[in-house]
Design goal:
11 helices, globular
């Protein structure tokens, strides 16, 4: 019998399951606090009160608010990365335009399903929060960047003929260059720069829609986004 709440024969104990469930609930309440009061509204003591926990008990899960926010954003980033990669990998590798379309569509659908998560990860910084350097958030953001750059690089033989001018590594930030050259040593600077522009177009309309700027002027935001993605693919010399 599993009395002490440890793992027995590789089976997760009841205590561990309860801890995972409580951690998940804490993160859900934190997102709700953010939705109602903005990023600065996230409070461990407020979460404890809502969940009927003592401050001491909640601190055993997340010693500081920054620890909670790091875990929360880490989960969000991993969910987004998994979603984007699954969508593009479902399209044959010999259809780079289709893979980019799938990536862009998955980004929008994920953001609409998780608007507060999208805001927290991409544009609504939490006052006073300082993420750990090269922590889980940075690692997953790097994963997203790496996979999109890899995807865009497959279009480079076609796309380079449609780009206005060549790009050198000196045109890009040294930190970005270092990561790209470490993760994808065969990617040329022009393809790396193109990946940034592709991301900007994919992300731009989604961010406007999540922040409520598209609905007042576009009757069908999904069609608008699809048209932008189709134009993006054509701009890369793909059908």
């Amino acid at each position: 019998m599993d009395i002490e709440g440890e793992r027995t024969g590789g089976v997760v104990s009841r205590r561990e399951r309860l801890r995972v469930e409580t951690s998940r609930e804490i993160k859900a309440v934190a997102l709700r606090q953010m939705a109602e009061g903005g990023p600065g509204a996230i409070s461990l003591r407020g979460i404890a009160r809502e969940m009927g926990m003592t401050a001491r008990a909640i601190y055993s899960y997340f010693p500081t608010r920054d620890d909670l926010i790091t875990a929360l954003i880490g989960d969000i980033a991993a969910s987004l990365a998994d979603t984007l990669e699954s969508a593009s990998n479902a399209v044959p590798t010999d259809d780079p335009g289709g893979r980019l379309m799938a990536w862009g569509r998955a980004l929008r659908e994920w953001a609409l399903a998780h608007p507060e998560s999208f805001r927290l990860f991409y544009g609504h910084p939490v006052p006073g929060y300082r993420p750990p350097e090269d922590g889980p958030v940075d690692q997953t953001a790097r994963r997203v960047c790496r996979e999109l750059t890899r995807l865009v690089a497959t279009t480079w033989p076609h796309a380079r003929r449609h780009q206005p001018e060549d790009t050198s590594w000196s045109d890009l930030h040294p930190a970005y260059v270092a990561k790209i050259r470490e993760d994808l040593p065969d990617v040329p600077p022009g393809a790396a720069a193109l990946a940034l522009r592709v991301w900007g177009r994919m992300h731009g309309l989604v961010a406007l829609e999540i922040d409520g700027h598209i609905h007042p002027i576009a009757g069908n935001p999904a069609a608008l986004h699809r048209a932008e993605m189709l134009d993006l693919v054509r701009s890369l010399g793909l059908n």
